[in-house]
Design a protein that fits this description.
Blueprint: H1 9-15, E1 21-25, E2 28-32, H2 34-40, H3 42-49, H4 53-57, E3 59-61, H5 66-78, H6 88-92, H7 128-138, H8 161-178, H9 182-198, H10 202-212, H11 219-231, H12 233-238, H13 245-265, E4 272-274, H14 278-284, E5 289-291, E6 294-297, H15 314-328
Parallel strand pairs: 1-3
Antiparallel strand pairs: 1-2, 4-6, 5-6
Helix pairs in contact: 2-3, 5-8, 7-10, 8-9, 8-10, 9-11, 11-13
């Protein structure tokens, strides 16, 4: 839902002539307004009011792929973004000659196929092509048919609309984290969760997580991913998502917190019981107390401080399988 102080498309067209800042993404540029951008982002405000080059030139380069930048601009002016269309960004484009109220539906169809070749030196920023390449290189699971998309005709073999939309929502969270805009970050999480609820595909979700891990600094996004992993643990194990040590290191604090929280809700008093291997317990032992063949976590909050540097071994996988059985009263084969 758009913010109360968002603009209409006709209003955006009207104020375009009063632009005092140019946003640059590759070969595209947009006539923006410092007041709107600085109101949302303290990072941009600092760049435009300090001794940085942006304050002198009134130009700012945004090192994300073009679809992400356009949806970012849409949010700044409209308070929302829609992956199926562009709104304010089309009007504010330097090449736009549209009349007030002109339709912009359908101009966002290149999402998932447009791959920006412009990458600046910031190692944090990734384009869609880099993220997808990372996920593809790490995948160890054979391709299966896509799920959750009603496309009529069979999709091309290299078409992954669910994964691509997950990636775009993820990049919206990434740009929100980069420019310190928590409202946009929360909106991206909400849209990601809703999209997965309506279009679940275990294969596409796992491919997305493989490629996207490390692309945002927003802990809330990883917490959301961890919740989904636990909700669909059978499939994520089937697709070997947790075989990836980097993913486990990123998600493990949230996974442990989720498990502990689930046990408390399930009536296991103030203690979450999980079995752990000797390999893992040697790393986590400082936070755990031995109770026969189990280990007890007395407070779920300590899970966020656990250094999970142990290698994700088969015995560790048994831990996850045991957790799944305890939470669902049924084993994973």
């Amino acid at each position: 839902m758009a913010e109360d102080n968002s603009l209409s498309l006709s209003s955006v067209h009207t104020i375009k002539q009063f632009s005092d800042l140019t946003l640059i993404c590759g070969d595209e540029s947009f006539k923006a307004h410092k007041a709107y951008l600085c109101r949302h982002s303290p990072v941009i405000a600092a760049a435009l009011t300090g001794e940085f080059i942006e304050a002198k030139t009134n130009e700012m380069v945004i090192s994300f792929d073009l679809p992400t930048v356009k949806h970012f601009i849409d949010f700044i002016y409209m308070g929302d973004y829609d992956l199926s269309t562009y709104t304010a960004s089309d009007i504010l484009s330097s090449g736009c000659i549209a009349e007030p109220g002109a339709a912009t539906d359908g101009v966002g169809k290149e999402i998932g196929s447009y791959l920006s070749a412009i990458v600046h030196d910031d190692p944090f920023v990734l384009t869609q092509s880099e993220v997808l390449a990372s996920g593809a290189a790490d995948s160890t699971v054979d391709d299966v048919d896509s799920e959750g998309v009603d496309s009529g005709d069979a999709a091309p073999e290299d078409s992954h609309p669910i994964r691509d939309q997950l990636l775009q929502h993820g990049l919206m969270n990434s740009i929100a984290d980069y420019y310190a805009i928590p409202k946009l970050g929360a909106l991206a999480i909400k849209k990601t969760t809703r999209f997965l609820t309506d279009n679940w595909s275990g294969r596409d979700f796992c491919d997305f997580v493989r490629g996207f891990t490390g692309s945002t600094g927003d802990a809330r996004f990883y917490e959301m991913l961890s919740d989904i992993v636990m909700d669909h643990l059978s499939e994520t194990l089937e697709y070997r998502l947790l075989d990836n040590t980097d993913i486990v290191q990123e998600l493990s604090p949230h996974l442990l917190t989720t498990v502990a929280h689930s046990f408390r809700i399930g009536g296991y008093a103030e203690t979450a019981i999980v079995t752990v291997s000797s390999t893992v317990s040697s790393t986590l032992g400082v936070h755990f107390q031995a109770t026969n063949t189990f280990y007890a976590v007395s407070n779920a909050d300590v899970a966020t401080s656990i250094p999970f540097e142990a290698i994700w071994t088969k015995s560790s996988m048994h831990t996850i399988r045991t957790i799944h059985w305890l939470l669902n009263n049924k084993p994973i084969r």
